[in-house]
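Open question from group meeting: does this chain pack into something compact, or does most of it stay loose? Before anyone orders reagents, we agreed to write out a predicted structure and look at it together. Recording both the input and the output here so the notebook holds the full record.
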Amino acid sequence: SHSYRLGEDTRSVLKTMGDIQIIDTDGALQLALDSADGITIEGVHQEIGKCTITLNGVTKSINTTWTLVPGTYLATPKRQAVFADPLSREDNESIRRLAKVVYGLKSRDSKAVSYADYYHEKLKEGRINDWIAPLIEDPKIYLPEALKSWQSLEQGPEKDVIKPCWKRLIETSDLFPGHSVGYEVGVLGTKIPDIAFFPPNISKPRAAEYEAYGDCKGQSWSGTSLSELGQGIQYGHRILDANPLRTHVYGFFTNNSLVVLIKSTRSRETPYLVHWDVSGALTFGQGMATFFRLVHEDSGYLPPPTVQSRLVSIKGSLGQGRTCRAYLADCIGMEVVAKLYDCNETVIEDVRKLAAAKAAMQGSTGVHACQIPTVQGSEDRWLLVTPAGIPFTFNTIRHNHIRKLVSALKVVHKAGIVHRDVRFANIFHLITDGAVLLNDWGSSIRSESLELVAGCPDRWAHPEIRGVTEAVPLPKHDLYSLISSLGDLIAPGVSPESLAILLRGAFQAAEICNYDQVVECLVRLLQH
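Structure tokens returned:
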């Protein structure tokens, strides 16, 4: 296995910074931090992965919220990844699966570890609102026949009484005419709601196929349990995540006496966050009548997305970009990145730009290991591309990755194309063959064109194009943003001033587009 080491130049700069140092079992510096920033064990885990952290022989990593005090800490990985060469097919698949799990955890819209934490988190973010449901004078108008005599429904424990009651109602009644209603039939995340409403041509709904949902509670339930409310809002989140075009979904919790209603709604503006309206505890008649009225009028349901008649099954969010939202998805057994744009014109433009970049790369020699996304299909606002990589970390970036990236930039620059957003948010690792994926060509442009500045964020942008409205994109701008973002990757938490010192040689080489010198300066910062 490879032990990650920073190069001598990097260590000499970092050792002068921060009163907290994290070293590995070989004594190599991994992180230099400032205790004034309130660094926690969890924060260290996010940077270098799960590990056991000790100070003077005492383990400190049991409580992840513990704040580090000044000192030198030893980080021992809980699992050491093995990068043997060559890897077997089984090893490659195992690494790929683990990497996807890690990326999924990093990219999800929550850090909560329980349903109650999830509720508190969203409440603190201002995304949960009190919902005053409209009163209905005669609930029987909207209730299905089987619920019109709700006063006679059984009362008692959840498992022994309420759940069997709803199972029997679903099996013997038509609760939602023209639609299917199932009992414990479709998984949402790691749980299965007791009651699922879904289209009639489906036997077992996936998250994208839920029209609405419900869950049973016991007689002692008061409608105020944060754990159960957290579970309810997460159901709605899962459903909306599975179909990014859908705007809302309704759900309910009940113990046959009280009902709590939940409406999950996706914002129509970036960053398209989900927020919730949660009612107080309503009487069964009022609550269920309101639920059925709302679902009948507009359940919010939309069929799962398709591209060229192929079903696209969304598996998770990959993040929000400047022009689109990206998702990891499955399309007829193929893993794809599904990009959802604001309009079809942008899809067409991005397809054209990808084709130009691929043509430039295919006409070159020796740089094919740096890949450009391949278009697998497009329709309306959707674009499907492959492959789906994973983000680099300072534990996985290697000399050869830097060489491939800079070589690829040299080729596209020679073809007159400037990427305009070369940073590690758009650079991915393809573990199965060790290749690099240079993604997000939506900002790319011919280098001689005057262009409105909307590419790389100012944090990583060349000083010439910060704070200006128009600029001529130049190859050196791509090299600068690559170098700047690499600094953040290999030296997280270091100040911009210190990074400028660390990367001075590379920046100087970028100014004159000396690609070989850029590579030489950058690889000195890494020692793998």
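Observations to bring back to the group:
The chain has a mean pLDDT of 85.
The first helix runs from residue 8 to 14.
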